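Record type: ASSEMBLY
Status: queued
Input:
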Amino acid sequence: MVWETVIGLEVHVQLDTKSKLFSGSSTTFGAKPNTQAGIYDLAMPGTLPVFNEEVLRMAVKFGLAIDAEIGRKSVFDRKNYFYPDLPKGYQVTQLAFPTVGKGSLQITLEDGTEKVIGITRAHIEEDAGKSLHEDFQGLTGIDLNRAGTALLEIVSEPELRSAKEAVAYLKKLHSIIRYLGISDGNMSQGSMRCDANVSVRKVGAKEFGTRAEIKNINSFRFVEKAIIHEAQRQIELIEDGGRVIQETRLYDADKDETRSMRSKEVANDYRYFPEPDLLPVVIDEAYIDAVRAQLPELPNAKRARFVSQYGLSDYDAGVLASSREMGDFYEEVVKICGDAKLSSNWVTVDLQALLNKNDIEIENSPISAARLGALIGRIKDQTISSKIAKTVFEAMIGNDQSVDEIIESQGLKQVTDSGAIEKLVDEVIAGNPEQVAQYRAGKEKVFAFFIGQAMKVSKGKANPEQLNALLLQKLKG
Amino acid sequence: MSRRTVAELSRSLAQGEFSSTELTRDYLDRIRKFNGVYNAYITVTEELALAQAAAADQRRARGEHGPLTGIPLAHKDIFCMQDVLTTCGSKMLANFISPYNATVVERFNAAGTVTLGKTNMDEFAMGSSNETSFFGAVRNPWDTQRVPGGSSGGSAAAVAADLCAMATGTDTGGSIRQPAAFCGITGFKPSYGRISRWGMIAFASSLDQAGPICKSAEDAALMMNVMAGPDIKDSTCVDLTAPDYMATLNDSLKGLRIGVPKQHLAKGLGAEVESALQQALKVYESLGATVHEVDLPNSHLSVSAYYVIAPAEASANLSRFDGVRYGYRCENPANLEDMYKRTRSEGFGSEVKRRIMVGTYALSAGFYDAYYLKAQQIRRLIKNDFDNAFKDVDVIIGPTTPHTAFKIGEKNDDPVTMYLEDIYTIAVNLAGLPGMSIPAGLHNGLPIGIQLVGKDFDEARLLNIAHQYQQNTDWHLQRPEV
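Status: finished
Output:
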């Protein structure tokens, strides 16, 4: 039996505002518990919400970035449920009239194909506080610092068909919110959280299967693993004659499994109704135009520009445009060294490897764009070879000497003096008569051996083109 | 001196007839003597009052006073007052010291008034008799066997018995106007959005409105000059600068068109109330007004719509009272669910619980359209009725209540009979209009009130119409034997 996985994602993005959605309390992460909860956040009797206009601007920005319908009139609703970290006993959210309506996101799959994923809506709502179950000897601690922080909940259509597509979608979303500067998208700190609705059906089936919702997955990798695991669980269940039930499940990264959290979820009745303490938010064209004017260049546009302006491959342009910081870094390197292709290689390969290895974001790169540009400049003017450049690159980490100082002090300057190279070639030929004979007998592959020997003797500093030409000339006799 | 109106007291203070401190002591004495009888106050803030009075006297000496500087008032215990017990008439908040001031409290403080204390009220403002208070029933100063009305019963009784010069109240379905009628005083509910709700503990957010409870329309105007106006802390408070309500009190009523709803003169209205109403209309005619019948065809639906919308909003507004952060918490909860259940079962009284249940039901999946949505549609129809009526008339006048104050315990068996007490007042809240009750007669020693309803944000005209009546009658000056 061939199965198809159907996935829809609900992503909560914490908006990067200075103050909360409906109160003036600060939103800084990591403060001492309950030091950032004002009287509204604590749901003191008689307090009222005042809408933070910055949140509206951010939501509209996002809406425009995904080509969505912008709600000309959005309405806040109360979603009622009891939980100790929900001080008012209801969450203020948007049900029928969200600020951001239908839109779409283009994702690039691993094989390079593009797919457009529908976004149903994105609505503004307030975050809850945190319940701390450890350290209180059977009691629960409540930290309301996060309570009332502005969230944008972005709901996709069930159009994702694999865990990989889900991750590609999530990464694209991450990239866009960071481009827009509306959130840092930090999944481990919870500023971007993902719930996945997963179901399976036979390929070709028209109806969706019953879905399970996996809550609060906190990294891209776990999203992938959780979906794979959950789809497999459902397939096995059905193949064994069982039935998937609609429920909420929790992904346990340590055990790599999902388990049931609340099976009564379906019975929850949130009793939504319009929030009477807030007026509907009405947006006119002028407002939308003003926000549109503030939009930065977005990933797709940047990628297209990199292809046309710098002659990069679609793939490399995509990697470089994947984050605003990466794109900016790249363009600065190009500006300094003047070589778009070399810059692309160095940024996407060498620098990326270094960053990945140390789990560093490009904005904190140990090698600045200016220094990388200078390094590439020395390859271009043949001061060093590409190979030596890698040695210099290594030396640049944790060293604030300039590129030229490193080359100078470590004696890495390329040898371009033809006399010196000739001497080197002669030495190598004299020292390896057997291989010379093989070569002359027609075994041309041995040529590489001579290059290797010569480079070894010169410690890699010989200019490769000159070396090549001289060796060829001398071997041919 | 404590039996005078605010306007009179203000003149006396200005002329140096007595100081605010003397006046305040006089009220505090009366409270000590009579509060045991009426139970009008939950908290008396004597120390604060004396300090504010002294400050007011100094302010007056410096010439930095306004008309209300040094006037002693009481706040309904629904208004949060910093560092003062704020109970909302409930066991749930019987230990709650507010960390902040309501905007209304803040504005009176800025005006230099003297706060004598916090008045009794129906629990969470849910009631029409002041019998649902956790702190006991309030007694009507005209007859202590009778209710003062509710939910602002403590404020109304305190004003009627001269235990304060003026008081604040709130009105969700009649909670200022009905007790004003029962206690023979003036109660004013402004348009929804005219006065900030910040710091006023919510019952039904789309209906709640604060207003003055006092002895005359002129006093109401003085209070409105302090209370009304925009507040950035309340998004539903309109961004309209309030006019000077004193400026137009003496405008002529010549040519005033009064509408009397035919539905209000129908079955259910007590003969004594109808007769008082007719006499009041004659007074107005003598002042140059004309009387016209108006039609409010959907008014019979108002009580039903109200008892869906108000409980629905209340069911969410009262969710915050969960025992987690402040207020009452049950003893030794076994777990979270037990804590919620017992805290709320023990902390709320039965009327509050009844309304939470009704509201929860009305919002439940499958019932929302039939109840909440339908009620909102009716609300729109009721507003349309008023809009249509106001095409032909400037003010609508009718009874405030069907009859005079009833006896304590008389209507406790059937909540619906109690709900019908507000039959003439509720539609005004649903439409968001300004309304007031003024005394217009006495029957068997009990006051009768008539209700004046104005156009949206036309409070100044309403106060003018009431003031002119009071200039030509003396019902508002009648006082019970205390």
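Annotation: The interface with chain B takes residues 39, 42-51, 78, 80, 82, 84, 87-90, 140, 142, 269, 271-273, 276-279 of chain A (CB under 8 Å).
Annotation: Chain A has three domains: 3-289, 297-409, 418-476.
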